[in-house]
């Protein structure tokens, strides 16, 4: 059985964006493409309605490229449990109110039992300083959070 992986919006955004002139962004784009080409099939991928909403924002041509990649990926259900955990991550956890959608991504991946949450959002999701508090909030509610990581950390051997 393949590990289950929640694909957060930044991954598909970096995967489908035109090459950036910013060296760090360009590196993330290249790493994302490498992960997609070499490791994607090793996982059972999932997305959510918030991923689709974020992917549809902005330039419509870019949104269509993102949607084309996301189309075959199953969409996780937004449940009351997901909403409650997302609320707790903001109210009791380390995430600020403005990061409510980021809390929703974490809650979706956690409640649905994902093994991994793949993201380039290192401000509010893949943030080592917040990880312990996120884990604590999840554990208090009886959930085991996924491993939250970037494509670089999930390239394998």
The dominant shape is globular
Secondary-structure arrangement, i.e. CATH architecture: 3-Layer(aba) Sandwich
Share of β-strand residues? 5-15%
- What is the CATH fold-level name? Rossmann fold
Polypeptide structure, described:
The protein is an alpha/beta fold. It has a single domain (4-154), classed as 5'-nuclease (Rossmann fold). It has helices at residues 9-16, 23-38, 49-55, 60-70, 80-91, 100-111, 128-140, and strands spanning 4-7, 44-48, 75-76, 116-118, 147-149. Strands 3-2-1-4-5 form a five-stranded parallel sheet. Helix 5 crosses helix 6. The chain starts with a strand and ends in an 8-residue tail after the last strand.
